[in-house]
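Input record, target 12 of the design panel.
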């Protein structure tokens, strides 16, 4: 069964007031994400992977140089879908409840978490992703290069930020730190993060 491009969980202009433009989403979702879906379907057509789930394809092809094309496209489909859900209009701020307590317990404070997340997103050289993950019951911040995704390492992703330049260049040009700050202050969907935490 062929994969399809999932719809954004908000209108493409819903984050305009939070400095992410409809033009960015028209390219990022409508072209980049769509291309990963199209390429993946072509690469797995007629293979033993064609009837597998996205997660199964990612895990089956990770670290296999002969299947790098399949892995890269499958992981980017998964990562982008997860990223859209990490965003919401009027987001940002701080989490509440059990998630907030866990962040304070594992990082020392919410501010320390923010410091670590900013550092991961800022220092990821070139293209990649910054993540909040659950690792054996402990919250950790990590980063992955290119199409890398924590699910291949048995980690549970809770939140991600895309730091590929195409994610922010139309709105922030080369100012990645400003894009990161804006994400944390105005865009993080803490409800989605809390749902992932509760389900882990």
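The sequence produced for target 12 reads:
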């Amino acid at each position: 069964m062929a994969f399809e491009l999932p719809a954004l969980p908000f209108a493409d202009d819903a984050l305009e007031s939070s400095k992410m433009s409809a033009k960015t989403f028209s390219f990022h979702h409508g072209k980049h994400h769509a291309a990963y879906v199209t390429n993946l379907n072509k690469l797995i057509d007629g293979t033993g992977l064609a009837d597998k789930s996205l997660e199964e394809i990612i895990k089956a092809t990770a670290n296999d140089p002969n299947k790098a094309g399949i892995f890269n496209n499958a992981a980017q489909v998964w990562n982008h879908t997860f990223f859209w859900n990490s965003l919401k209009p009027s987001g940002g701020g701080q989490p509440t409840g059990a998630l907030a307590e866990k962040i304070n317990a594992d990082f020392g404070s919410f501010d320390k978490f923010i410091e670590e997340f900013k550092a991961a997103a800022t220092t990821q050289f070139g293209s990649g992703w910054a993540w909040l993950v659950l690792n054996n019951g402990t919250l950790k911040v990590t980063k992955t290069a290119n199409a890398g995704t924590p699910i291949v390492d048995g980690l549970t992703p809770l939140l991600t930020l895309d730091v590929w330049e195409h994610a922010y260049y139309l709105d922030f040009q080369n100012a990645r730190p400003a894009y990161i700050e804006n994400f944390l202050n105005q865009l993080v969907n803490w409800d989605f993060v809390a749902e992932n935490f509760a389900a882990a």
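The chain has two domains: 20-86, 97-199.
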